[in-house]
Amino acid sequence: MKEFVIVIPVRFDSKRLPGKPLIKILGKEMIIRTVEQCKKSKFLKSIYVATDSKIIFNLLKKKNFENVIMTPKKCITGTDRIAYFAKKIKAKTYINVQGDEPIIKPNDIDKIYQYAKKNRNEVVNGYAKIINYSELKNPNIPKVVFDDKKNLIYISRSSIPFVKNFDSGDYYKQICVYAFPRKILIKVYKNKKSKIEKKEDIEILRFLENNISVKMVKLSGESKAVDTRKDVIEVKKIISKKNFEKY
């Protein structure tokens, strides 16, 4: 059994941006860019893609990326897809990097790994400060609230906590890099959304609803998940910077 593996869950269909894993960003498909960023991790060398799409499967094989696993289309979330993957490829802990994170910082992946290595029985999720009011009001960006020990209290697409006077020091967003211990992942994820998870459309809530604590780890916040065409344009601008290859 492996100790740690990175798993990138990818589905072809997206309600907000159909076919987004294959959208080309300055000449490279988004999923290819995500894989390339993961390969820059200092510590994690076992990297897999779990996908429901033969098109994505064949693309990665063509690009000489061999660690691709086909998963059923019936997997309702990325985490369910990883739970299915976990039954095929056994590891003690799975590091989840979303397939729509083409500029994820390798250092952020490594921070999640380093924390998870020391805390092997905890579910881990990344967070960063919200820097402006538009991020706070954007429903595509989940907002997080946690206690003094960095235990997640709640996560929502709404602006939480209540906004009276916006201060960037008071609000935080989820960064979609996770660590899942295998035993907990297999136990909780049965391909059926929990009640609040379904309403918020945020899959990490399923752990909270099953009385599993989630530890939050501060990351850089310099990544950019791609959910809309506007996000694609913003990511292109970031990648166009001369120093991106060191990013």
Mean pLDDT score, rounded? 94
**CATH homology group:** Spore Coat Polysaccharide Biosynthesis Protein SpsA, Chain A
Instruction: Tell me the count of domains.
Output: 1
CATH fold description: Spore Coat Polysaccharide Biosynthesis Protein SpsA, Chain A
Q: Helix proportion of residues, in percent?
A: 25-40%
The dominant shape is globular
State the helix count: 9
How much of the residues is beta strand, in percent?
15-25%
Intertermini distance: 31 Å
Q: Your description of this structure?
A:
The chain starts with a strand and ends in an 8-residue tail after the last helix. The chain is of the alpha/beta class. It has one domain (2-246): Alpha-Beta Complex (Spore Coat Polysaccharide Biosynthesis Protein SpsA, Chain A), CATH 3.90.550. 38% of the residues are buried. The model has no long low-confidence stretch (mean pLDDT 94). The protein has helices at residues 30-38, 54-62, 78-88, 106-118, 133-137, 182-188, 195-200, 205-209, 229-239, and strands at 2-10, 24-25, 28-29, 47-51, 68-70, 91-97, 123-129, 143-146, 152-156, 172-181, 214-218. The strands form two sheets. Strands 1, 4, 5, 6, 7, 8, 9, 10 and 11 form a nine-stranded mixed beta sheet that branches.
Topology:
Elements: E1 2-10, E2 24-25, E3 28-29, H1 30-38, E4 47-51, H2 54-62, E5 68-70, H3 78-88, E6 91-97, H4 106-118, E7 123-129, H5 133-137, E8 143-146, E9 152-156, E10 172-181, H6 182-188, H7 195-200, H8 205-209, E11 214-218, H9 229-239
Provide keyphrases for this structure.
247 residues; alpha/beta; Spore Coat Polysaccharide Biosynthesis Protein SpsA, Chain A; nine-stranded mixed beta sheet; two-stranded antiparallel sheet; 9 helices; 31% helix; globular
